[in-house]
What does this fold into?
Amino acid sequence: MSKTVSALIVAAGRGTRAGAGLPKQYRPLQGKPVLRHTLSALLAHKNIRDIQVVIHPDDVALYEAAVAGLPRLLPPVFGGNTRSVSVLNGLEALAKDAPEIVLIHDAARPFLPLGIIDNLLAALHSTKGAFPALPVVDALWHGDQGKAISPHSRANLYRAQTPQAFDFKTIINAHYTATDPADDDVALARAHGIEVAIVEGDERNYKLTTQADFARAEREMQMDIRTGNGFDVHAFTEGNTVILCGLKIPHSHALLGHSDADVAMHAITDALFGAIAEGDIGQWFPPSEAEWKGAASDIFLLKAVERVAARGFTICNIDCTIICEAPKIGPHAATMRAEIARLTGITLDRVSVKATTSEKLGFTGRKEGIAAMATATLVKL
Ligand code: MG
It folds into this structure.
């Protein structure tokens, strides 16, 4: 059975360096307070039983507004004059129904990846403490008044992040027996001779401190996700081959069209044009222009792919459904997926081609033609 885990957020600071006239943990980021983002990141991990937040007495209204509706939050407690006192207040509140493990996290690190929590919990199988950190990769220098003095080795140096994870009893006892103030809980644990493991941190888990950090966060959070759909129909005509997703399939008929009548590729192409709101195949390649007569439809799809890239989007996935009684699509679906993946430059696991009949109803049921529909999802990070 996995151990019980609580999180403790120290949000009692008054830091207003980041601007907006609010303590930074309450400053809005994409319209929501930083603290709410941080809590949501922790709550996304299934092992977090509950969260204790330590706040400043002046911030009760700000806190209540920031956390409205969030689950698994214990009533807030007030912090003290130092970080250490604030942490102890939070630990004592948690002690009423003590967890086995506590994760002590900065309120101003809202982008905590869940994998860090996994790594910390795994590390605590064999130690009483662990924290995430990244090796220092930049050269380090001692300097004085804007002049370089001497280089400093970066060997064995790490940039610490949070959460700092501890066996609950171990860390609360360390606080009770502490004589000297410690910078943080890892320092406190080390002062008590407690072994603390370093697990791999993540660049995304940065701390919001300055105005520039907030500007970076706003920029990075502007993820733009688009969905587009496409639908197309082509009628059967005399012939012995249909072309679907670029694949020639022997059949009793061919499909009628100005181009090669690849109904599936047309639907996919329109889904991409739709997602970026740039019209459709007919607008980009007018049937009235002789140039496109009999054209292989990959030129249409490649144009849509080019436009998607030009707009700064990446294709997340494509899903296409072909509607017909015959030919059978199943035996060819893998080859079709591979061709669409090749043309769009995405991996095979992001391309789906499937088929259905219309139960002999309607024009597809009467084998008068083939219909296809497609959905595409795009993202701009
Ligand atoms: Mg068409």
Q: What stands out?
A: The domain at 224-380 is CATH 3.30.1330.50 (60s Ribosomal Protein L30; Chain: A;). The pocket of magnesium ion is lined by residues 232, 234, 257, 263, 266 (CB under 6 Å). The longest strand covers residues 224-238. The two ends are 38 Å apart (CA to CA).
